[in-house]
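Appendix B. Worked example

We walk through a single record from start to finish. Start with the input: the chain for ABC transporter substrate-binding protein, Sporosarcina koreensis, length 343.
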Amino acid sequence: MKRFGGLAASILLATGLLAGCAGGASEGGGDGKGGRITLYSPETPDFTKELAQKYEELHGDKVDVHYAGTNILVNQMMAEKDNPKADVWYGGGGILPFEAAVDRGILASYIPDFAADWDVVENGIKLKHQDGKYVGVELFVLGFSYNTDLVSEEEAPKTWADLLDPKWEGKIQFPNPAASGTATLMVMDQMMQQGEDKAWEYFEKLVKQANSIPDSGSAPTKAVAMGEAHIGVGFDFMAYEQKAKGETVDFIVPDKTPVLVNPATLIEGGPNAEGGKKFMDFLLSKEAQQIMADWYHIPINPDVESKTPLTLEKVKEHAVDLDIDWVNDNYDRVRNEWKDKFQ
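Next comes the structure step. The output line below is what the pipeline stores for this chain.
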């Protein structure tokens, strides 16, 4: 593969109606040769709008961004299967929702030339689908945010086991695995590393360490920024966004932890396949990757510098080898068992 220098098993339970957020709402194609492109994405509306505007600036074709939570978008694409409206689906907290959609007949096969010679999996990070059903465009890391006014870098936890240290009792927050894909990833990772029985024992202890277990994946990091928790479990970009706002927050990459790509895919039978392919090519370009970096995501294009201390080269040694098939087969069962045990 090209050298630069992937499981958020997260089906995000967001709310909202599909609404055009960028590119205008008028009928007709753009000024370029590709025509109007329809993008479905659960990523931050202002962020995806910025991507769409940059594409329009470079290529002339209009991009309509439709925002909703990942589950809502997947259900929408299933409902539109016989008459697809979207050309590209980008983002969803990682590869899990894309893996789950592979057998539903809504994803077309397309890998941009930029990623053609990547290995499917490297250092435990699945970079693209083996049959071309999606490609990673950026990296997310699951780890620990901490309040730098309350915790020094030296004493901050460095492993998942460190969260059980008695000094953190009543000072930790992590999301609710029955509601948050971010936290479901955390649970399933521990099951794969320790076995289910030992993992459940671990979480029985971790629950007692927490002062709150909110439903939102980003809430623990926000609680850390507000001083309501010393340590929060979440994705790297959540912490670095808070830090960029001037909050006293920093991030620890655990010794071994899920590192995953956030993908994009071409929609099977979409109205503008050629435009969709061009937009996917664009997502791996320096221009789009710079926007991702500016939003504190880890770019996958080696020609773009990360705005955070993290890069693929730095985090890949921390990546655990995730059994995606096992996660897909057991995802709902594990969430239901969590609910039965702890709610």
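Two observations about the output. Residues 141-257+323-342 form a domain with the D-Maltodextrin-Binding Protein; domain 2 fold (CATH 3.40.190.10). The CA atoms of residues 68 and 191 lie 30 Å apart.
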